[in-house]
Amino acid sequence: MDAYLQRIGATRSSSLTELQERHLLSVPFENLYTHMDIRIVLEIPWLHDKVVVQRRGGFCYELNGLFAELLRHLGHHVDLLAARTFGKDGQLGPPFDHLTLLVDGTWLCDVGFGALSLHPLRWDSREEQEDPAGFFRLIDHGDDVDVHHGDLPRFRVERRPRELADFASTCWWQQTAPESAFCKGPMATIATPDGRMTVTDKKWVLTKRGGKTEIPVTDPEAAFREHFDLYFRQSNASGVLRQL
């Protein structure tokens, strides 16, 4: 865990807010393993090796799964909660589509969604919450809770605590199903102090409060290495494996 703290530039005395913010500024949200035909293993030693030792990123099951282990090591009570993300058409994704964290029964923490709040959100508040990334609101929906970023619903959270292994089937689906957004193409994105940087196999995007800059990508391997220091080489067999 000390190596993990060093990876995100935090210490054992860092507050929950500092831990989440430093994590989001240090560890990218990325899906490169999916396009290298390397299967994700939802076990803490495997995740620690990937994120801490190899200094890679991941998606929600990996990043929030490992972050939960760090928080527990530091004395926090953490529940893993299942969520379903809202698509651009407003439709909900499949069950266990997203993994998010309830910390100490008070804070909704998430380092694995991509673009979301930089700081934890109050779980018991239904008022608008201001964050460096914008305004957020939690809205009750029956037994579940919807998380809104401005006017956009992001995901619907169940209240029932889960285990990391409960997400394994959907994690596999995310890596293999043609319908999965993670199979559409390789990408990596990370929060910056004043915005966000994203690289795909087609473009580099830098978003700041003053606007957005986009540059076409002609060599994805070089782009991921230059901007994220991430090794990437797309497997020629990936399409065949997904069809199988």
Tell me the quaternary state: single chain
Shape: globular
Tally of individual domains? 1
Main sheet: strands, sense, barrel: 8 strands, antiparallel
Strand portion, in percent? 25-35%
Number of helices: 7
Structure summary, number of beta strands? 13
Kindly report the CATH topology: Arylamine N-acetyltransferase fold
Strand order of the largest sheet: 5-4-3-2-9-8-7-6
Q: Report Rg.
A: 17 Å
Distance between the termini: 39 Å
CATH class: Alpha Beta
Helix content: 25-40%
The low-confidence parts are 237-244
Report mean pLDDT, rounded to a whole number: 93
Describe the structure.
The chain has 244 residues and is of the alpha+beta class. The protein has a single domain (2-228), classed as Arylamine N-acetyltransferase fold, CATH 3.30.2140.20. Helices cover 27% and strands 30% of the residues. The strands form 2 sheets. The protein has an 8-stranded antiparallel β-sheet with strand order 5-4-3-2-9-8-7-6, covered by helices on one side. The protein has a 5-stranded antiparallel β-sheet with strand order 1-10-11-12-13. A hairpin with a 3-residue loop joins strand 3 and strand 4. It is globular, with a radius of gyration of 17 Å. Mean pLDDT is 93; it is low at 237-244.
Task: Please provide a brief summary of the model.
With 244 residues, this protein is of the alpha+beta class. It has helices at residues 2-8, 16-26, 44-53, 60-73, 168-176, 220-228, 238-243; strands at residues 29-30, 78-85, 98-103, 107-109, 121-122, 129-131, 134-141, 144-149, 152-162, 187-192, 195-200, 203-208, 211-216. The chain has a single domain, classed as Arylamine N-acetyltransferase fold (2-Layer Sandwich), CATH 3.30.2140.
